[in-house]
Design goal:
It is built from 11 helices and no strands. It is mostly helical. The chain folds into 2 domains: 21-130, no CATH class; 139-257, no CATH class.
Length: 259
């Protein structure tokens, strides 16, 4: 069994109790008045932010498919990345992002192999509206995958962590916990720390690479969704929602009681 298969099983086992009631755990709020103004849809009739978010994405996808101008696509990307997603991005990079990822319309998941992880918190949001196989990748999702693997005793793969705003996820540094586990099982020894390129060698050995991370993630989320008879969107939403709550709490409890 390879690292991806082990991770898929670990994550599916962890998420199984949650997958039937995602709406109970997903609470990412957004300015409904601004969303209604931008989309023309009244979100007040939706019961919770899980439903509101799914409807929002559907409406935005429909708008994107009907856009006939580059400026309209930029406006949509600006709204979803900055207003909904809370990601700071300058206008020039935003326009470059829209220009580049517009080329992915109609492509299948094999296209993920072309994507570098740089800026993924921004571009994966926009790509998720263009391609139904493209889940959002951000700091919370990466934290959840790495933490679930760590708690399951699997430390041979580490998904690249990207910058995020959640201070709660920094209470226990998952990078350090992975490193400690490698010292315990003998994969690393103290003398390894003396090598001047120790950090880069460690990253190269265990961390998913810039050019492979997103493609690996796309396949992983699809596998987990298939195993749990769920949608890839629901799996991504759960990984995002549980990171600062159940997952970080479970890590704290495991770390506190670990001999």
């Amino acid at each position: 069994m390879n690292n991806l298969e082990k991770t898929s099983i670990n994550v599916a086992n962890y998420l199984e109790p949650y997958v039937k009631n995602v709406e109970k755990h997903y609470h990412w709020s957004f300015d409904e008045a601004k969303a209604s103004q931008f989309t023309g849809y009244d979100f007040s009739g939706e019961k919770n932010y899980y439903q509101k978010t799914k409807v929002l994405k559907t409406v935005l996808q429909e708008k994107l498919n009907s856009q006939t101008s580059f400026e309209s696509e930029v406006a949509l990307a600006r709204y979803f990345i900055k207003d909904w997603g809370g990601v700071k991005i300058q206008e020039t990079p935003l326009r470059e992002l829209v220009s580049y990822y517009a080329n992915f319309k109609g492509k299948d998941s094999n296209a993920a192999a072309q994507l570098n992880i740089k800026g993924v918190s921004s571009w994966s949001k926009y790509l998720s509206l263009i391609c139904d196989w493209a889940p959002i990748y951000d700091s919370r999702v990466a934290y959840s995958l790495n933490t679930i693997n760590f708690m399951s005793g699997h430390t041979d793969i580490f998904f690249q962590m990207v910058e995020g705003r959640s201070s709660r996820l920094k209470l226990l540094d998952i990078n350090t916990l992975f490193l400690q586990e490698k010292l315990k099982n003998g994969s690393l020894v103290i003398s390894d720390f003396e090598h001047k390129q120790f950090a880069s060698k460690l990253v190269k050995k265990y961390t998913t690479s810039n050019n492979e991370t997103y493609a690996i993630y796309v396949k992983l989320i699809a596998d987990i969704a298939n195993n749990l008879s769920a949608t890839t969107t629901d799996i991504e939403m759960l990984l995002f929602a549980l990171a600062p709550k159940d997952i970080s709490f479970d890590l704290l409890m495991k770390y506190q009681t670990k001999p």
